[in-house]
Amino acid sequence: MxxxxxxxxxxxxxxxxxxxxxxxxxxxxxxxxxxxxxxxxTATVGPDGGVLTLTDGITPVVVIExxxxxxxxxxxxxxxxxxxxxxxxxPPWIAYSFVSFYLDAYRDGRLxxxxxxxxxxxxxxxxxxxxxxENWHLFYWxxxxxxxxxxxxxxxxxxxxxxDGPWLHTTQCRASAExxxxxxxxxxxxxxxxxxxxxxxxxxxxxxxxxxxxVNSRFPEGTSEAEVEDLWARIVNGQxxxxxxxxxxxxxxxxxxxECCILPSAHTYGVQARYSWLWNGEGEVIVGRSALEFDTSxxxxxxxxxxxxxxxxYDGWYPxxxxxxxxxxxxxxxxxxxxxxxLGWEPEVLATAVLTGEGTYTLTLPASAVAKGxxxxxxxxxSDDGVLPPVYTTQRANFYDTWLSPARPRLVxxxx
Length: 416
Known about the structure:
416 residues; mainly beta; Chondroitinase Ac, Chain A, domain 3; Jelly Rolls; 8-stranded antiparallel beta sheet
């Protein structure tokens, strides 16, 4: 699996197992494709290969990895989720994981019926971890046979299936068909048996309180690299003054060369790591971090399924590698100790994102990051801001400004 996809799969997706009591007696030709949801992603893939990812809005549900030379000429692949599947599960594979989809291949706008890849593609699908013991397989609907067949059988030699925690990785060669993740959960069963969890609910809350914190320091021409490294170390270790409040969530600071001062702002959130020499002969270093708080008090007693931090990046100097950490400062008391907030975070990385330009970024967080019944605190920083970057290096991304009016950072939580 591609390295970038591993991070995308950091949080398990909530799916539900249903034992289908009634089985359709209609022939395959009677299918009306009523289950198509309109949730679709497309991509044109050539001999170099490519990746399609279908999400539920927060986390991936299906990922298709097409390796090089799997197609000999460009085709357009369309990945569309279905619910329920257009073709009813057939015995003994009657347990449905809520994951089903069409993978269709087109060329010049025409569906390529019965399309097969020249070499196996990898299909990764989500499997609920609370059904880890079930015998899940990826199937495709065989129109000629009128039944579900295992997708691994579409390749010669046969493909493979591998479970990796809550994910099922299947290599297969078929497109232009409906696929579903099915299981035969019991040797014997009662059609009326149901194993069902309460429906997932969603909390979407903007940052209620937050501060961007910047340390900007300059030094004269002739300053040695060792002196700059010492200055950077003092900055990242919080050995700086804190600016004086001038009202309305703004602060100011007057400094001499090689001094540092933490300047908070309630109006601008962002991250930064910069080391450069300026046109006037002065040198400059800047470090920026942001501390955010989200009200998750309504989740007391809830079972959190997954969570995500949503950022609207509107300005920056890219690429920026951003990391998210759990905040340890006292909830609701950021203004009381900005130096403590600057240093008040856990070293464990909850999420990482590479920001390549303006746009919306969704960072998947572990469920444990959510403070159920309290305040969820998150600190954002450039991933390697603890080390002086090479000279003439700048990483900067801003994701909130009161006056420019981008959306506030949001915490999205799914729970039961």
